Amino acid sequence: MKALVFIAHGSKKELSNQEFISMVNSIKQKDKNYDFIEASFLELATPDIKSCSETLIKKGVQKIYYYPFFLNSGRHVVSDIPNIIEELKSQYKNIEFELLKHFGSSEFIEEIIIKDISKI
After folding, report:
1. Residue 117, class by beta-carbon neighbours within 10 Å (0-12 exposed, 13-18 middle, 19+ buried)?
2. Long-range CB contacts (< 8 A, 24+ apart) of 86-91?
3. φ, ψ for residue 98 (rounded to 5)?
4. What range does the domain containing 26 cover?
5. What would the DSSP string read from start to end of 15-72?
6. Rounded to an integer, what distance in angstroms lies between the CA atom of residue 61 and that of residue 53?
7. Global pTM?
């Protein structure tokens, strides 16, 4: 089984966290490629990346993909998230972990913006 874990920064504002969770739940309903799709947070909200991953492993997931929902390649994308995944790799040697490119690096971002601003 394989899973996809979306990672957001997390916010003190619950509405912001709920918006992210709602988006992930909507994707979960539409996607047919993964056995599980979950939302996680780097900080300030739960579940965190590690506990989300451990829950999936307990469910029998053998490969976990991580999708950082960040616009830019700052410290969290370049260092913090990879470090957490490396910790998981060292703890769970029989599980595959793969970090995907962050959202802001998507080749489709410009198309989304053009569509949004063309409606004005």
Report:
1. exposed
2. 87/50, 88/49, 88/50, 88/53
3. -135, 125
4. 2-118
5. HHHHHHHHHHHHHHHH--S-SEEEEEESSSSSSBHHHHHHHHHHTT--EEEEEE--SS
6. 9
7. 0.94
Question: How many angstroms separate the CA atoms of 10 and 16, rounded?
Answer: 8
> Rounded distance, CA 16 to CA 21, Å?
9
Count how many domains the chain has: 1
Show the tokens assigned to 41.
Answer: 């947070």
Residues of the chain with pLDDT under 70: none
CA nearest neighbour of 104 among 78, 75, 80, 68: 68
Query: What digits encode the pLDDT tens for the residues 64-77?
Result: 999 999 999 999 99
The CATH number that applies at residue 25 is 3.40.50.1400
Distance CA 104, CA 120 (A): 23
